[in-house]
Structures are given as C-alpha cells and as structure tokens.
Specification:
alpha/beta, Rossmann fold, Transcription Regulator spoIIAA, 4 domains, six-stranded parallel beta sheet, 13 helices, 21 strands, binds S-adenosyl-L-homocysteine, binds iron/sulfur cluster, binds FE3-S4 cluster
Length: about 475
C-alpha cells in the first residue's frame, strides 16, 4: 500500500527522471478476455486523454469497452480535484456503484486520476469505501495492469499512489475516442503553484516530452488520417524549458504546422511566458487555429497577486491586445474565478471592466472553491456564498452579452467547419469552426465526422451559430 502526501508532492528539485519505453507484462496479455469495462471520466482534456490510455491498457488485458456502467464487469472512475463539485460527483458515483456491487458481487471497481493523489480521499476510501478494489494515481498509470491483476488475484484492496512523479513513459497504448481528431500530450505537470490550485500537487513537476517523440506521434496520426491535433498540457507555454535551451512551444508549433495536418490546437496557455515568437507562429500558419485560451482569473491586480498569477491586469491586457492585433480573426477565451478570498466589490468591478474590454468569445466562470492543502485556504474569506453566487451571475450576464455580440458579427460570413456528427433531431449537422464556435448546419450532400466544409452563417445565438453548406 502506498498513500500519497502533499508535502512530498509540492517539492520541486532537479531530480533526474528517465524516459522509458513502456512494456506490458506478457503474463496478463489477454488474461481477462470477454470481460467488459467502463471508464467514467471527470475533469480536463488531460484526464480524457489519460482515459484513452487506460482503456487501451485494459484492452491489452482482454477487456472490451461498453457504453453503460450497468453492463460492465470493471468500472474505473478517472477523477478530478479542481473544485468541490468535481469531488462530489465522483463520490456520488461511488455511492451508486456500492449499490450495484450489492447486486453484482463480482463487479470490480477502481479509482484513479487527481483525487487519488489526495491523502484525504485515499483515507476516506480506506475508511468508508472498502468495496473499491483498487486505487492508482496520475504518476503510475503504466502500473494499472499489475495493480488490477493483483486486486483480482489476491481479492484484496490495492492502494498504490505515488506522491511524486516518476519516470516518463513513452509507448503506452491508446484507443482514441475519435478517428479524425486527437489529443497529444506535450508536457505533464505544473510548476506555477497558483495559490488556489491543486494541480501542481496532483500532477507533479513540469516534464516535457522529447520533441522527437511528439513529432513521431503526430506523424503517425497524420498517416492514420487524423485531421485535427490538440497539444495538451496544464501550461503548454512551459514546453521544452526543462529539456532544451533553444526549443520551445513556438518551435514545436512551427514544426507541426509545417506537416500535412489541417488543424492544430493547443491547451492551455498561461499568460506568463506567452512569447512573441509564439504569437508570430500562430499568426503565420493557417493550420494553427486562431483560437487562444488565455485564462485571466481576475481583473484586479491585487487579487492576481494573491492568486500568485505572475501578471498584472495591465500586462495581461497588453498581451491580449498583442495577440488580437497579430493573429487575424483570432478568438480568445478565458477562465475567471469570483469570490477569491479578499475580493471586494471594487475588485470584482475591475473583473467586469476587463471583460467589457476583452469581449471574450468564450469564458468559463467559477466560484472559488477551497482546496485543502493549497495556500489560498489560509487566506481570510470575506464574502458569503450568496455574494459569490450573485457575482457569478452578474459576470455571466456580461460574458454572455459578448458571446452573442461576437457571434452576431459572423452573420453572413463563411466559416470552415469540421463536422462532428448529426444533431439530436438528425436534420442538422454540427461541428466546430476554426475559432472553436459550435455551428449547427444543413448540407445538401451527406457528410461524415471529420469532413471539413465551408458553412455560411445564417443565425447567431449566444452559445452557437446556425448555417448552411451551399
Ligand atoms: N492550467 C490552466 C488551468 C487549469 S484548471 C491555467 O492555468 O490556465 C481550469 C480552471 O479552473 C482554472 O483556469 C481556474 O479558473 C479554475 N480553477 C482552478 N482551481 C480552482 C479553484 N480552487 N476554485 C475555482 N476555480 C478553480
Ligand atoms: Fe493551476 Fe495555475 Fe498550474 Fe493552471 S497554471 S494548473 S491554474 S497552478
Ligand atoms: Fe481536474 Fe486534474 Fe485536470 S484536477 S482539471 S483532472 S489536471
């Protein structure tokens, strides 16, 4: 048994790690043939991509995917710790699984992801969720086959979570959810330690993948017919800093853009370290999508300082306008937290005025959620939940106003859209524009997911656009 500890997780040193090739233990290959699995994924794209790897590992063991947890012999919850409600959802699901286990004695239940990295969660599982068969963390996904096999063979709960990142494994299998768009990890972990955020504790130190490994993966995806690639990291701007003196995200984006791939995206960019080279490259290559997620969190420099964000309102706005003026028709989206400890009405009004200035194309807005173990927990909270909820509502009214205003500007324009599928009513297709806008549209000819088509915009709504292929 191995229980994680945040005191260890927060340490950052230049300890060497190795780049190793993953090899599956031959003894377990196909051992569980005929058994069915279901993975429930919470949280960010990184977790979604991890689930694609977990699924592939299970398939090597012989498991087959099913689309309903009630039909599965093995259910894995890939969890997220970012806010309290993510926690609550996973525990709610565990409650349902407990009932299911009473009816289905052989059901195997596993938990992984960011919540597994929290000692308090693991202790709760040891105490109140004894029916969970195994827990593994974000640093040892490659050990899943061994841990799962032991949980079944020994019929005993396995808790194997490392506090800190270990070696970096290449060559893990992956079953992709899609056959036209794919996620590619470029950097793991986060060293920014924003004071409210749990990610640096659950995902460890920043570690870049070697550029050759990334470029090889991209080449394989292109060969397999993929049309869109999203480069993933909690902070992609830090790419390369731990490995190279003169190769960074700007270089990587450029090397990928030169390949025969119609769409390249990247997520997420911290405003810190967003270099001029990056802006130049994004503006230069038409296949790098003009869509930048640039989380601001707050419009008040005082709150940004308390958040440990490393930029001020002024320097954020300077960067924002530089991107807007360099990258043609770029859409910028953001994340905002309200009710951070110490946020006064004046601070909040500064956030509203920043939103009025930036007129974001999209924004994810949150109420501050206290995460045990992070520095923000020690700050004195000065607003009630009711005040926070009111601020969130006022903020949402303003962001929504600009979503609609921006969408209205697209009326009559022709946008290139990647088809995702048909809408529920089946009479319309839906897909995403280069700027990541959701478009519902009709087409005289039949289309399939992954097709790229030009759509004329006929109607603008707050969260989507309607259009037609001519
Ligand atoms: N690495 C990304 C953010 C990943 S988390 C970045 O720094 O840009 C996604 C978003 O969740 C954050 O941008 C933030 O707005 C929100 N978030 C993170 N921790 C939170 C907390 N404790 N309470 C509320 N929102 C939080
Ligand atoms: Fe969290 Fe900040 Fe890292 Fe983003 S940059 S993951 S908000 S610590
Ligand atoms: Fe959640 Fe972990 Fe992602 S906390 S947002 S799943 S990195």
């Amino acid at each position: 048994m191995r229980i994680p500890d945040f005191n260890e997780a927060r340490t950052r040193d230049k300890r060497e790690y190795k780049r190793l090739d993953f090899e599956l233990d031959k003894d377990v290959l196909g051992k569980y043939s005929g058994k069915k699995y279901f993975i429930k994924t919470y949280g960010c794209q990184m977790n979604e991509h991890d689930s694609e790897v977990i699924g592939a590992l299970l398939e090597k063991l012989g498991f087959e995917a099913v689309d309903d947890y009630l039909k599965a012999d093995l259910v894995i919850l890939n969890t997220c710790s970012i806010r309290e409600n993510a926690h609550n959802k996973a525990f709610g699901m565990l409650g349902r699984l407990k009932h299911l286990r009473n009816e289905k004695k052989d059901l195997i239940i596993g938990l992984c992801g960011c919540m597994a990295q929290e000692a308090s969660v693991v202790e709760e599982i040891l105490r109140d969720y004894k029916f969970v068969n195994f827990v593994f963390g974000t640093h040892n996904m490659h050990e899943l086959p061994k841990i799962l096999d032991r949980a079944i063979e020994e019929n005993q709960q396995q808790i194997e979570v490392y506090s800190r990142e270990g070696d970096l494994y290449e060559g893990l299998p992956v079953v992709r959810t899609n056959n036209y768009k794919a996620y590619v990890n470029i950097i793991y972990g986060c060293d920014k330690f924003c004071t409210y955020c749990i990610v640096p504790y659950t995902r460890g130190r920043e570690r870049s993948r070697e550029k050759e490994d990334i470029l090889r993966e991209v080449d394989e995806l292109i060969k397999d017919g993929y049309k869109e690639i999203t480069l993933l990291g909690q902070n992609v701007n830090a790419y390369g800093k731990d490995l190279y003196d003169d190769y960074n995200l700007g270089n990587l984006l450029e090397d990928i853009a030169k390949k025969d791939i119609p769409r390249v995206r990247f997520m997420t960019s911290h405003p810190w370290d967003f270099t001029d080279k990056m802006i130049e490259v994004i503006g230069k290559y038409p296949n790098i999508m003009p869509s930048v997620h640039l989380p601001v969190q707050s419009g008040s420099s005082k709150i940004l300082k308390l958040m440990g964000r490393r930029y001020t309102r002024e320097s954020y706005l300077e960067l924002f306008h530089k991107i807007k003026s360099t990258v043609k028709d770029v859409a910028i989206s953001t994340d905002i937290i309200v009710g951070f400890p110490g946020e006064t009405e004046e601070d909040f009004l500064e956030t509203l005025s920043l939103v009025e200035e930036c007129k974001y194309d999209n924004a994810f807005t949150f109420i501050f959620s206290e995460r045990v173990g992070t520095p923000a927990c020690k700050l004195k909270d000065n607003t009630t939940l009711k005040e926070k909820e009111e601020r969130l509502q006022r903020l949402n009214e303003v962001v929504n106003k600009y979503f609609l205003e921006n969408n209205n500007k697209l009326l009559g324009k022709v946008l290139n859209v990647m088809v995702e599928g048909t809408s529920e009513k089946k009479d319309m297709y839906y897909g995403y524009s280069e700027t990541n806008k959701l478009i519902n549209f009709t087409s005289p000819k039949e289309l399939k997911p992954g097709d790229l088509v030009d759509v004329e915009i006929t109607e603008a709504k707050t969260w989507s656009l309607d259009g037609k292929v001519k």
